[in-house]
Write a structure and sequence with these properties.
The protein is an alpha/beta fold. It has 11 helices and 15 strands.
Length: 417
Amino acid sequence: MCKIAFFWDESFLWGLIAYDTFRELGVSFDLLTSKEIHENGLDGFDVLFVPGGWASDKITELRDVGREKIRTYVRDGGSYLGICGGAGLALSHETGLALVPVSRMSTKVRLPSFSGGIALEPVDAEHPMWRGFPDGAVFHAWWPGQFALEDADDVEVLAIYDEPAPGSFVTDLPVLPDMHWEYWERSYGINLQPERIIGEPAVIETSFGAGKVLLSYLHFETPDDVTGHEVLLNILEYLAGGKPVTTPAAKDGGKTGSTDITEAMTLANSLKDSVDGLISFGTKNFLWYQRNDWILQWRRGVRGVEYSTLNAMLGRLADTVTALGDVGEVTVDKLRRLREIAQPFFEDAPRLLLLERDAMGEGPISPLKTGDEQILALRRKLFSESKRCGGLFKEIIDLADEILLPLLREELRRDRR
C-alpha cells in the first residue's frame, strides 16, 4: 500500500478540510509535523501532501533543516502535492522550497480575492489526473494565488482557468453578467475583474531530481465536490504509483471512562458556544452569512477567513473531545489555558465588528488600513496589523491546533483498528 504524509503545520481551517476529505475518501495517510520532518519523518512515504495555509508561516516552522529535508526527499524520488498555500510553499522565492522555477504573480496584476466555483480547461487531457473528467465540470478556488511562469520551460501546465461559475465571488461581490467591474475596482482600490484569471495556469507539474511536483491553486479537496474528489484520488494514485485508498474500519467513538472527560467536554463546549455566539452576532449585524458548512461569506472590511477558522477549529475541538471520550489531564490543562486566552478575544471581537459595521456606512473599508484609532487598536490586539494572522487570534488557533493534533491522530488510530 502506498504511504501518504500529510504536512499538518500552519494549515488550520484548510488542514481540517483536507483531513475530513481524506478520511471520507478512505485515503490512508499520516499527519506529519515540521519537527518530525527534521527527524527524517518523511522516510518511507511515497507522497508528501501539503494543504492550504500561509506558505511563509509553513516555511518558518520548517526552518532551513526542514526545507532541505523536503528538497532531498523529492530529489531522491518522493512526490510532492501542494494545494493553494501548499503550492505556494513549493515556489521559487525567499519563503519557498524552490522545487519549481516558478514564482507567485504579483498582487498588483493578479486577481487576489476570487472564491467559489470555476470551470477548468485541461491542457493535457491525457494526463492521469483527468481520468473520468466530465466536460463542463466545475471545481473550486478559494482566494488563490496565481503562478508566474516566465522562463519556466520545464514546467507543464495541466489546466488553465475558464469561466467562473454562478455563485462565485470576488471579495464580497457576486460574479454576475452585469457587474460594472471598473466602477468597483475604483471604489475598492483592488483588482476585481474576473476575466483577469481566465486562461491563467491553475495546475502545473514538473520534476525535481527524481521526484514529481504537482501544484494546484484549485482545492480539489473542497467538501462535497464529488468531481474534485475523484480528480484528487487520480492525482494521489498517479504520484504514489498505486491506489492510496484503504477501506477504513468502523469508527470507534466509544468512551473509555476517563476521569478528565467531563471537564474537557465542558471546556471545549464552552469555547464552541462562544464562537457560535460570535458567528450569530456577525450574522445579525449583516456582516456575513454562512456560505456553506465551513466558510462564511463576509463583507469586505472584516476578517472573514479568521472568524471562519475559529468557528471550524473550536467546533471540531468540541466534537472530537466528545467523540473520543478520553483525553487525559494534559489536554484538559491546555483546554483551561485556551479558555483563558480566548476570553478577551470573545469580549472584544463584537466591539470591533460594530465599529467596522459603522465604518462601512461611509463606504467600502479595507480589512487592514484605517484612520479610526479605535478600530486600529482592536485590530492590532485581536489580529495584528499584518495581512497574515497574528494577535490573540493566532494564539488561540495555535493552542487549539496543538490540542487537536494528538486527538486527530487518535481518531486515525481508531479508524484503523
